[in-house]
Amino acid sequence: MSVMPACPECASTYTYDDGLQFVCPECGHEWSQQASDTAEDESVIRDAHGTPLADGDSVTVIKDLKVKGASSVVKVGTKVKNIRLVEGDHDIDCKIDGIGAMKLKSQFVKKA
């Protein structure tokens, strides 16, 4: 017997299976079983090639990136050590030698 997931809207544990979707009897929310399976994968931050990233990893920049508010550029091939993953649009927090603290998007790096 499989365990039914909690409702993503109201967190109710009384959900039930209705064919290809789950239904919450408390709030009436319906969602597909496939969406429930892929929700776990969305929380993982991946690099440009799909490799999962973790805190403390080293990454390499794959595209020249302009630094907003400065005249400097982060060049292709720049290696960034000891990254920290954060929530938001720019999901990597790091320090780059010669530039300082920055936030990067994971789509512009690959795991080193």
Largest sheet: 3 strands, antiparallel
CATH class term of the largest domain: Mainly Beta
The domain count comes to 2
> Considering the protein shown, what is the CATH homologous superfamily of the largest domain?
SH3 Domains
As laid out across the biggest beta sheet, the strand order is: 1-2-3
Q: Order of helices and strands, N to C?
A: EEEHEEEEEEEE
On the 0 to 100 scale, the average pLDDT is 88
Helicity level, as a percent range? under 10%
Distance between the termini: 42 Å
Structural class estimated from helices and strands: mainly beta
Query: And the CATH topology of the largest domain?
Result: SH3 type barrels
Beta strands, count: 11
Multimeric status of the protein: single chain
- From the 3D coordinates, which CATH architecture of the largest domain would you assign? Roll
Number of helices: 1
Distinctive features:
112 residues; mainly beta; N-terminal domain of TfIIb; SH3 type barrels; 2 domains; three-stranded antiparallel beta sheet; 1 helix; 11 strands
Provide a short characterization of the protein structure.
The chain contains one helix and eleven strands; from the N terminus they run E-E-E-H-E-E-E-E-E-E-E-E. The protein has 112 residues and is mostly beta strands.
Overview of the molecule:
Residues 4-32 form the Protein YjdM N-terminal domain. This protein has 112 residues and is mainly β. The protein has two domains: 1-38, Single Sheet (N-terminal domain of TfIIb); 58-111, SH3 Domains (SH3 type barrels, Roll). 9% of the residues lie in helices and 29% in strands. It has one helix and eleven strands; from the N terminus they run βββαββββββββ. Strands 1-2-3 form a three-stranded antiparallel β-sheet. Strand 8 and strand 9 (92-96) form a beta hairpin. The longest helix is centred in the middle third of the chain and has 10 residues, at 33-42. The N and C termini lie far apart (42 Å).
